[in-house]
Description:
The protein is of the alpha/beta class. The chain is built from eleven helices and nine strands. The chain has one domain: Spore Coat Polysaccharide Biosynthesis Protein SpsA, Chain A (Alpha-Beta Complex), CATH 3.90.550. 39% of the residues are buried. The mean pLDDT is 87.
Amino acid sequence: MCPCLLQLLFYLLATAVATGFVIVAVVLYKTKPYPNIVRHSDEKSFLDPQSIQTVAFPSIEDAPTLELSVIVPAYNEEKRLPSMLDECLAFLEEKSKGKSSFNYEVIVVSDGSADATVSVALRYAKKHGADKVRVMELVENRGKGGAVRMGVLSARGRQLLFADADGATKFADYDKLEESLSSLASDWRHDGIAIGSRAHLEDDAIASRSFFRTILMHGFHTLVWLFAVRSVRDTQCGFKLFTRSTARKLFTSLHVQRWAFDVELLYLAERLKLPMSEVAVRWTEIDGSKLTPFWSWLQMGSDLGMIWLRYTVGAWRIAAIEKKEN
Length: 326
């Protein structure tokens, strides 16, 4: 190999290494190690539509007073939310009648919606009472992860379930998640996550999707496995059940507020060695998704790379570990 070519390769390698150091330095300088959770004053209370009074939300740091809190993040969901809430509340009401010790709440978190999402949710709060249905209206759009976190931080349950507003997952499959979680954690003070999964439906999904969307799906799964989560096949299903202890640890440590927040949650769970189980659920694709196949997956891929980079270089740290050490 001629000296000129060797010299060129050396310069290219040196440039790549220098660029890498600059990127790491910028990430370390620009990134706060722990999430800065901002909560506006209007987001700290909810409206009781029966008494027409505002009531302060409780805190995840408080002792639980209910069996189950269901968090429903909703962004411009006036059309899909009613069918989801009808199914959810019918199931929970039936369960509470059959088991006197079972009580619940549903917290609908409107993520800066510009449509009638809040009005729709308040109708359910008025019908069922604010002890069972509460509506949190975020001042600005935070992203799905940010909306779920705000609901979790205001929940009263020993168990916390977040469920998508489209109702794609059969709500009755909560029983399967609850059974699985009970095998991992004997009570709310212990850690555990039961993860709703559509992995068993993957062959059918490939058959019904376009070739382009199938390539995107496999590409995303590969990136998740490479950079973040290796023990869970389906990280993105919007049906996950946590003990209160686990929810407190994970959501106070969460940085990502948009679509890839599920991946960071499960990455944190793996890092903290929390018990997890993946549970097959019934799922049907519902029209009206806010995800645009190419751009949303591109954003999630970018978020995955940043999750890996920031934790690897120490720009992001895990708040739950810091609290334990102190």
